[in-house]
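tl;dr need the bound structure. longer version: we got a ligand (pyridoxal-5'-phosphate) that a collaborator sent over and nobodys looked at where it sits. i said id run it. heres the input, straight from their email, havent touched it
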Amino acid sequence: MNAPVTAGPAAFRFDPSTTPVDANERAARLVDPGFGRVFTDHMAVVRYSEGKGWHDAAITARAPVTVDPSTAVLHYAQEIFEGLKAYCLDDGGMALFRPDANARRFNNSARRLAMPELPEELFLESCRQLVRTERDWFPAVDGGALYLRPFMFASEAFLGVKPSAEYLYMVIASSVGAYWKGGARAVSIWVSQNYTRAAPGGTGEAKCGGNYAASLAAQSEAIAQGCDQVVFLDAVERRWVEELGGMNVFFVFDDGSMVTPPLTGTILPGITRDSIIRIARDQGIVVREEPYGIDQWRADAASGRLTPIGQVVEAAGRFTIGSGGTGQTTQRMLDALTAIQRGRAADPHGWLERLG
Ligand SMILES: Cc1ncc(COP(=O)(O)O)c(C=O)c1O
């Protein structure tokens, strides 16, 4: 079947796995799934080639991808990805959280990496169908979810440096437990002096694998320093706080207001970031999207203006924010967001897409 696909449920051929994991083994794997280690039986695949466009959409058995050693992605890293979760709701249903926002960000990343855009409805349908196929893979543990990893890579076998003429788009699913085992806690953060994450004009706001490859040395430094995460400063002045290795950052002040760095092209426009801004504003909290300097951070922590979010470690020393624990505002935001994601609270922005 090689006809170009546009969108809609009918676009995906269904080739069920002939060797799915049996129910007992699946149950054993789901007891303590952790993050990114337990995978489901199927995956979504759509192919692209120049001239033909997107074609051959399928939900098929999860299997290794065989590529030629000259495949473009292996040499020039033309690859993008997304990450989103499907939740099991308290009423027994399933839902995706803001998948349309992930679809839009995916296409923004595609444009930056000179890749073809994927029709938004195809992205959404690939996620919906995979979740429906894998409904038995939701872990029953608290905070458990199906983590979806849509990604696209340059699959043309050619060593010339140019945008590939062929691409593979895939979605795999992983059963995951709560990101922070034992509940959310304050993180400790290493301020990277040797490395920056993104420069103006670079790929900072795209979700491409290369950004993460380039962040690993800094993240390793953070671990060596006994910290959970690295925080990057801007590449020009080495002063303005940008984001952590894998998440955006908010600063919460003693007057209840919040600051988060603005989206000027070098940080990833997080969907959690956008959701927190909107929830906070709904609750009457003042949120400012403005640059915040490491010098200001030190001073505010020392003066007690910042409410607790944890420890910040620099080459020159460390500072603790408040008592070093999770702050009240942070907890409030987390509770409000989780309640919407689990279908326990009103959803005024229509963020939850129920899958039945
Ligand atoms: C560098 C970086 N910033 C921010 C985020 C948060 O993005 P989102 O809230 O859309 O998950 C991520 C998520 O993986 C990330 O890798």
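gonna send this back to them w/ a short note. The pocket of pyridoxal-5'-phosphate is lined by residues 83, 243, 246-248, 268, 270-273 (CB under 6 Å).
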